[in-house]
Amino acid sequence: MASGMKIWFVLLTTLLMINFRPFLVMVKGEPQVPCLFILGDSLFDNGNNNNLITTAKANYPPYGIDFPDGPTGRFTNGKNSADFLAELLGFDKFIEPFATVKGVDILRGVNYASGAAGIRDESGIHLGDRISLNRQLRNHKVTISHMSTLLGNKTLTMDYLSKCIYIVGMGNNDYINNYLMPQFYPSSHLYKPEKFATILMQQYSKQLKTLYRYGARKVAVFGVGSLGCIPAELAIYGTKDTICVDSINSAVQKFADKFKPMIDDFNNNLPNANFIYINLTSIAIGDPAEIGLTNLAEPCCEISSFIAKGQCRNGGGACSDRASHYFWDGFHPTEIPNKVTAIRAYTALLPTDAYPYDISHLAASTLALNKLGQSAGAELM
Ligand SMILES: *[C@@H]1O[C@H](CO)[C@@H](O)[C@H](O)[C@H]1NC(C)=O
Ligand SMILES: *[C@@H]1O[C@H](CO)[C@@H](O)[C@H](O)[C@H]1NC(C)=O
């Protein structure tokens, strides 16, 4: 097993070095798809929470210490995985946040992601305001109506929207900032893990169908990671020698198990649907030391001891060996794991990384566009 992992990571290192061209050295050209829309939580947020009244924000140092523009609201030291995916898809600029995007820029796509947001509206409320998935979908509807104005008519807009890639990453906060916080949220008193996972997936499935009704045909749904292994959860539920909190991982696994059947259901029953599942459990397989990640336990930045425990302290310090830390703060990875996630989501390294295929194939897939305008457009406005 160990030698197998080594081979994968040698492969991965090769991918990191050769196959991956950041903006600076990229040959200018058309992106592989005309537009990229991003819905999600803090793992994808690039500034939507900056002007919300919430402690779930990251537009202060040391966040962004390795990002060209400094602190932007990204919950990491550098780029997040949505940024890397935009690069891999050939965009020459990052996808702008809904909070600030203007004019024709919406034609390249919009990032709606919001830290602390969940599938359930109440998730994250103890931290303040956040843009739940339902709100993100309403924001997307606003974008589409502007897009219709720019493009001239609804048929053209629906045709255009069907060619975009949508990446959606939700569910982490329905656990971290809901189910695992019995002092603030009743969900764990009301539901056993299996039941909670079931109702959560039912709601998520409805929301993803709404995205489909809004014209999305190429959708990559990111799963949830091993939340029982993040420093913030270990700080609450771990004991001195625990590496992961098994009860948390097993509760979250019940939710993870429901992604594949949902994806199959969409692809079998929604005309022209191309949904894929990005398996973060699979992407986590391998020996991180092979790519220099030797510190897997301690966050790199100085953690705030006040509200939003687990985020970096405003103006606090950061470790200098950021390339060897897996975790940036108590919740979020540093830039390097973000890059690995994006690369393996784009080009699967293991067959289980993406189901039924990876984002590079999603980008290349062609759709039968004939019925599209009518079937989707009818539901739009
Ligand atoms: C929409 O615009 C396209 C391109 O300009 C045109 O061919 C088509 O007839 C228009 N459809 C409607 C319903 O106006
Ligand atoms: C996700 O990856 C894990 C680890 O390899 C695997 O056990 C699981 O079956 C995968 N899930 C899917 C839907 O492929």
TrEMBL record:
Matching InterPro entries: GDSL, GDSL_esterase/lipase, SGNH_hydro_sf, SGNH_plant_lipase-like
Keywords: Hydrolase, Lipid degradation, Lipid metabolism, Secreted, Signal
Gene3D superfamilies linked to this entry: SGNH hydrolase
GO molecular function: hydrolase activity, acting on ester bonds
GO biological-process terms attached to the record: lipid catabolic process
Signal sequence interval, chain numbering: 1-20
Subcellular location: Secreted
PANTHER family with a match to the protein in the record: GDSL-LIKE LIPASE/ACYLHYDROLASE-RELATED, SGNH HYDROLASE-TYPE ESTERASE DOMAIN-CONTAINING PROTEIN
Protein name: Zinc finger protein
Source organism (scientific name): Solanum verrucosum
